[in-house]
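Bump. Still looking for MVB12 family protein structure tokens.
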Amino acid sequence: MAVTDIDILVGSQSPKEDWEKDKHDLNEGAGGEYLYLSWELNGTKKPVTDLYVVEGEGEEPPHGYYKISTDLNKGAGGKYLYLCFSREGAKPILDLVVVSGDSDKVPAPSGFTRYEQDLNAGAKGKFIYICYKQQQA
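Sorry for the wait, here they are.
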């Protein structure tokens, strides 16, 4: 099983058929839109192999990355942050989860790696991180 696509859901938007949806609001404690991470497992596209967050409204993702057009701080103030992902690496991402807490020390679940960008940066609220489980070499 591998993650083959990622999206950000806004408000009460339901995930696409056969997609997963994390229960954590990406704007928790900061106000703004309710945003949720959603992803597809074992779809028809190549597996996702890396995550990246770009800062700035007009910023482009690095070469080989796809930028999701939803601002991760939509309606909450704070920095303009956009989740990007790549399919060019060799190690597929197998699963995703969002963690939140009252400090930047919130740990990743066992077996997961925390992506070190607080998705609520500059918007106050909870510290929000995406964690991923990646295939080992």
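The two ends are 15 Å apart (CA to CA).

Edit: fixed formatting.
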